TrEMBL record:
Gene3D superfamilies: Farnesyl Diphosphate Synthase. GO terms for molecular function: metal ion binding; prenyltransferase activity. GO terms for biological process: isoprenoid biosynthetic process. Transmembrane segments: none annotated. Coiled coil: none annotated. It comes from Arthrobacter zhangbolii. This is Polyprenyl synthetase family protein. Its cofactor is Mg(2+). Belongs to the FPP/GGPP synthase family.
């Protein structure tokens, strides 16, 4: 049903855009393409909470789930702009599509990049406002709609703060402490991907505040575990399985728990010369992985995943959490920590 909601949203938007010109219509089509094909993690966990707490109006839940999916699209489109990335998962993103169009039309490299990034900003803005539009159109009571809007707004607020912290990290020498990295990852991604959708599902189902709060805490812990797994997969994962390059994080010198842990180990003297170099070779990347293993960084990251996954499971011991919901969310923990294996 989430797919149906998104299809209707984009069909209406494209019909409106067509009246303003072909370029605008093309942007909406590109935005729709970038939204298609995802795992729909956020709608799925929202529906998991909603249905296991007694919710029965799947149309309302699908609408709110689609709002979170559009929010996800907005944030990754803007994240790519901030990172000056023109591809995602091996395909041109919104900015990449419009950069290439400008290049094909004869634009110089700098002008083509500017057009691409500009299109990315606009597309991300449209997806963000679209998320709130879908929420506003959901068939729920005014009181519930207000609570859901507050949850969505809090998620955007947190993610923006986390994104800024991540940007700030790149301008400081060395690696931030692990607790600061986890704080950034929680704000940037875990809140809107786990905490907020779970709480929204509970609010939609009319669950008590105790359950809403418990699911938020569970979402915080599993969201952090999920992000640390992402850090591991970004270096040690299979590109075939994840669709992500195992070079990009190392070439970028991305500040992750792996890098933070290794930064005060003897291996850092060699490792710091390898990471953060756009010319990093396959051989250099392999050596960087060896150093991350020998420094204990990989094992420490894995231990963090286990620690936060265990915390998430313990949150579910709350008497207010139904057995069905406990079982369903325990499975979410297993899926999150076993990705890429």
């Amino acid at each position: 049903m989430v797919e149906d909601v998104l299809d209707r949203f984009f069909e209406r938007a494209k019909a409106r855009a067509a009246k303003l010109g072909p370029s605008y219509l093309s942007l909406w089509q590109t935005l729709e393409d970038s939204t298609a094909g995802g795992k729909r993690v956020r709608p799925r966990i929202l529906l998991t909470a909603y249905l296991n707490l007694g919710g029965t109006d799947t149309a309302a839940a699908a609408g709110v789930g689609a709002a979170f999916e559009l929010l996800h699209t907005a944030l990754i489109v803007h994240d790519d702009v901030i990172d000056l990335d023109f591809t995602r998962r091996g395909q041109e993103n919104v900015s990449g599509v419009y950069r290439d169009l400008a290049s094909s039309a004869g634009a110089e490299t700098g002008a083509a990049r500017h057009r691409g990034l500009s299109a990315g900003v606009i597309a991300g803005d449209l997806a963000l406002t679209g998320a709130f539009r879908l929420l506003d159109r959901s068939p729920v009571s005014p009181e519930t709609r207000l609570r859901l809007a507050e949850i969505l707004d809090d998620a955007v607020f947190a993610s923006a703060g986390g994104e800024l912290i991540d940007v700030d990290f790149s301008f400081h020498p060395g690696a931030p402490p692990i607790d600061e990295i986890l704080h950034m990852e929680r704000l940037k991604t875990a809140v809107y991907s786990f905490e907020a959708p779970l709480q929204a599902g509970a609010v939609l189902a009319g669950a008590p505040d105790e359950v809403v709060s418990t699911l938020g805490l569970y979402g915080r812990d599993i969201g952090i575990a999920y992000q640390v797994v992402d850090d591991l997969l970004g270096v040690f994962g299979s590109e075939t399985a994840t669709g992500k390059s195992t070079f990009s994080d190392l070439r970028e010198g991305k500040r992750t728990v792996l890098i933070s842990y290794a930064s005060d180990k003897p291996e850092w003297a060699e490792l710091s010369d390898l990471i953060g170099s756009p010319s990093l070779t396959a051989r250099g990347a392999a050596r960087a992985r060896e150093l991350l293993v020998s420094s204990g960084a990989r094992d420490h990251a894995r231990e963090l995943v286990r620690e936060y996954a265990d915390r998430a499971r313990q949150r579910l011991d709350c008497p207010a959490v139904t057995p069905g919901l406990r079982a369903a969310l325990s499975a979410v923990v297993d899926d999150a920590v076993n990705r890429g294996r």
